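FW: tagging you since you asked about this chain on Friday. Here's the raw sequence from the shared folder, copied in full. Didn't touch anything.
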Amino acid sequence: MKKSALLLLLALLAVPVSMFAQSKKDVAAAKEVEALERQRFEAQVKKDYTVLEKVFADDLVYTHSNGHQNNKQEYIQSIRDGKSVYDKIDVEALNVRAYNDGKAAVVNGTITIYQPNKPDGTPNIAHLKYVVVQVKDPKKGWQVVLWQSQKQPEAKS
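HL: got it, structure written out here
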């Protein structure tokens, strides 16, 4: 009796672990999306419109840290027009969780954005937490469909 009770207990403990274990496709997708996130930030700095056109879905919704929203065309145009300028973007934390056998991913992270100095010459630095949802289109590959960021308070010395 003790042996069967122990086996039942072990079986019950194993169920939750197996329910939440990622598939091999999810693990591979998470690694791929992490690399693509870094590539996307680099493309924003370098104004690589070819990459940006590819990585943003046509139905992108980007909610900036100030609450303003852009679609894909508006956001890319803001980079072209010099309204969104990035000197450097440092990725400080990045977590990717993939779902549905590597067809969707949720990304959350922390970045620091360095922009041109303010008119008074002080540095223009933004510390942001952000969330991104990417989906894998069979023809276009991974694309950002939702991006939202939130400013974080300045670290005090």
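FW: The first helix runs from residue 2 to 20.
HL: agreed, and DSSP finds four helices and six strands in the chain.
FW: great, closing this out.
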